[in-house]
Structures are given as structure tokens and as C-alpha cells.
Amino acid sequence: MSLVPADVWGVLTDPWAEGIVQRAFAEIVLLGIVGGMLGCWIVFYELSYSAESLSHALFPGLVVAALSGASLVLGAAGGLLLAAVAIALAGRAPGVGSDSAVAIVVSGLFGLGALLALSAESPPRLNALLFGDILGVSNLDLALAAGLAVVSVAILAALHRQLLLVGFDRTSARALGGRPVLVDITLLVLLALAVLVGVQGLGSLLVVTVLVGPAATARLVAHRMGPMMALATLFAVLAGAGGLYLSYYADTAGGASIAAAVVALYVAIWAATAAAPGRGRARAVAIANHPNH
Amino acid sequence: MKADRLAAGYDGTPVIEDVSFALEPGQRAGVLGPNGGGKTTLFRLLLGELRPLGGSLYAPAPCGYVPQTERSRLDYPVTALDVALMGTLTRVAWWRRLGSGERVNALEALAQVGLEGMAGTQFGLLSGGQRQRVLVARALVQDSQVLLLDEPFAGVDERNVEGLMELIDRLASEGRTVLIATHDVDQARRWDVVLCLNRRQVAFGPPAEVLTVPVLEATYGGSIVMLPPEQPDAHAPRPAILPPHHHEGH
Known about the structure:
- The complex is a heterodimer.
- By secondary structure, chain A is mainly alpha-helical.
- Chain A has one domain: Orthogonal Bundle (ABC transporter involved in vitamin B12 uptake, BtuC).
- Chain A has helices at 3-13, 19-44, 48-57, 59-68, 72-91, 98-117, 126-131, 139-158, 160-168, 170-173, 180-219, 225-250, 254-275, 281-289.
- In chain A, α3 (48-57) runs parallel beside α6 (98-117), α5 crosses α11 and α12 packs across α13.
- By secondary structure, chain B is of the alpha/beta class.
- Chain B has helices at residues 39-46, 80-85, 100-112, 128-141, 158-173, 185-188, 207-210, 213-220, 244-248; strands spanning 2-10, 13-22, 28-32, 54-58, 64-66, 146-150, 177-182, 193-197, 201-205, 224-227, 238-241.
- In chain B, α3 (100-112) packs across α4.
- The A-B interface holds A 44, 158-159, 161-162, 164-165, 167-169, 171-172, 174-179, 219, 222-225, 227-228, 281, 284-285, 287-289, 291, 293 and B 43-44, 47, 49, 62, 65, 67, 71-79, 82-83, 85-90, 94-95, 98, 122, 124-127, 138, 142, 150, 157.
């Protein structure tokens, strides 16, 4: 009988003996801190689509860097700049709604990346560009993620009162000392940096799950911004650990397993809040809007 | 507070012109007019967001601002106290952390509007009237002698209107100048003075003098119906407005 707990203990601890799992977890914790804090603002400032667009549209930059043997971070940065300029220009194109214009630019750039990637000289580790290589993160990736986490936490803490006011009621924010332009630009820059760093571990297709998923999950249960950020970070770390276990035992791709765990956690929490009618945001809003309340 | 032949607008095109009025501390002033009549523009001037195109304006800065509660989000993760604390941004630099002093101040403001004990309640869970009170508390935290209330009764159900009226009376009796933007003539009758705006100043003065049928027709462009007297002992019919506002929705 005493073997069973030891087995369970072994199942839980075995993966962590591996250096690559430890490094992958360190990366996901750092990205989880960024995703947890920044993600809450991304969700309330309705920037999820921007996050998705940026991360997909920088793909040709990654492919060109991989083909030419240049640093992937530099490639991603170049791709990000190109994407930002193209999206900004497309948004002003007459006769096309800005969301349609952005969708066309993003598909176009992603297609361009695919075209380059599937040419005669297909870059090595094409999968890693699309889905990331969380189990193969370099020291540079870890250092970048740590730097990003420190910068993001510091800036978001300093800007917290501004972010809270502008997100609450944009139209009257200026009358109360709010600075919507400062807030918007800072959020977009932080988002671009997070995509740039996160794409190294999670790839062009999966990075957005960590930036949006845990915050969206925390929104289901949190009633204040501070706890929501803490919960979102916790959810990101939990999903990261769960994804790594899945990857270790089911031999699935690391990044994809983590993304699946993020989504599974969302569905589980959503189901729990839907089943417990006394809790959750949907019920809160329903009560507040009820004419007899 | 004093405005003299004030004009204001956007991109050099005036939205309001020829606005002249003076308000004393403790006065409650209704700002009456249709949508697009210039109420918002006047408030933006008083808040310092717009500069006058002409004339002069003296107002003690900054004015406390109470926006329509309908514009604030109900799904936002903030408590009543969090919202009241937003009023500190005009006084405490935005990058500074708030101390216990500001917290005590915000709790006092919530108590002043009758919401003691509800500081920890999520904003979206409060009723329309309570949310409006939280926004008033936030303006009190701004610590201004002038309060601007934008359609404070929109989204507040009937039985909470009276309580909100009493709160406004009390804020004025403590020496504040309170401006209330409204499109509702019956409410405007309650205040000490009324400023009628329809792209220019139609009238300014005590409601009994100002709220006449010709003035209301000029303010609202003729959409006036006469209602029979409310009390049996009254003999004059009461003018009432059919605001286009109500039919178009927002």
C-alpha cells in the first residue's frame, strides 16, 4: 500500500528532474506573470484581437530570421514593426471597415510567412516558429522574459490608477485627471513587447493564449482588479504546470499542451460559475440590471 | 462662477454662443436644453477640456464631475471604494501610491452620500441610484467647490430620485455650487436658477420667471404639449416637453 503514494509522488516529481522542464516552467511562470497582469487590461481594453493580430502578422519576420540564420528576436521585432505599420495604414484605407482591413493584412502577412516557410529552403524547426519551443528555451529567452516581467510589473503598477479610471469610463476620464492617450500607447507598447518575447516560447499561433486566456478565466470569478491579476497569474502558472505534465506523459508538444490547459481551465471555471448561480459575473450584472433591484 | 458672452465649440465652429450667467456658492443651477443644445460643451468648458472661442469664464478649478452612470461599466472589477478613489487623480499624482489618508477621505465621501457600509460592494451590483451616489462621492473626493452633474437622474428609478434630489440639496447647502444638466423641465423647476441652452443662451434666472412657454419653445424648438394642471386647485395648464431624446434612444 505504501507504494501508491510513492508512485503518485514519483509521477508528480519525475518531470521536474529534467532541466528542460525546469527551464520551460521558469519561462511559463515569467510569461504567466506578464500575461496575468497585462492580460487583465488587454481583456478590459478589448485588445485581445490586437494581440492575436500582432502575433500572427509578425510570422514572416520569424521565417526570414530563421532562413537567414539571424536572431529570432530580431526577426520578430522586424515582423512586428512591419505588421504595426501595415495595420495602421490598412485601418485608414477608405471604404473598408478597420476590422476587415486588419483581418486582410494579418492573413496576408501570415500567408506571406507561410509562402516563405514552405519554399524550397524550408527553415529548420518551422514548427517552433508556429507553435513555439517551450522545451527548448534558451538563456536569452529566459533573460528576455525576466526583463519583460520586471518592466511590465513596474509600468503597470505605476499606471494602475490611470488604467483603472480610463477603462472604467473613457468618455469622462479626462475630466477626472485621466490620460487616455498615455494609457493606450503604454498598453500597446507593452502588448507588442509581450508578444515579441512570448513568441519565442509559444510561437506565433499560441502566444495569445497565455496573454488572454488566464485573464479571461480570472474575470469569471474576480470582483476587484488586484485579485483578478493575482488569480490570472496563478491560472497561467497552473495551466503551465498542467501542460508540462501532459506534454511529459502524453508526449505531446509543450506549447500546445499549455495552450490546451489554459483553455481547459477556462472551461472548468466557467462551468463551475455557471453551475453555482450565486457567484460569477454574469449573475452579478443580471442582478444589477434587474428593474426591481 | 461667472460667464460673460461666452462662446465655445470644436475646430473653431461655435456650438454655444452668447452665454452669460453668474452663480453663487450654495446655488443649485439646472442646465436645461435638448441633446446637442450645448450642455456637454458648457461642462467641458468648465472642466477645462475646452477653451472658450470668445467671451470670458471664471470658475474655481477643478470642478468635480459626475458623469451619467449609464456610461460606466457594470462588468468592471471595482468596488464602490475603488470608484470613489478614482477622484484622487486630480489631486494625487497618478504614479503615486494612495495612502490611508486618501482611503479615509473616500470612505467619508461614501458615508456623505449615504453609502456607509457599502464601500466593499462591487460597483456593478449596486442599483442605479446607488451607482449615481458613488459617482457623486468620487466628485466629493476631488474636493471641489463646484460640482457638475450630467443627467444625474438617467438610469435611476423613480423611488430613488427623491433621495438623490435631497443629496443635491445638502451638497449645495454645504456651500458648493451645483450644476445639473437635464432635459427634464419638471426637475429643472426644483433648482434655484435655470440656464436654458439651445446653441445659445435662451434664458437664465429663477425657474418661476424663466420656465415660460415661449422660453421652452425656443429651448426645445417647439415640441411642447400642454398638460392639464396636476393639482385640482391649480388653474394654469403646465407646459411639458416631448424630448426627441426619449424616442430615439441612445
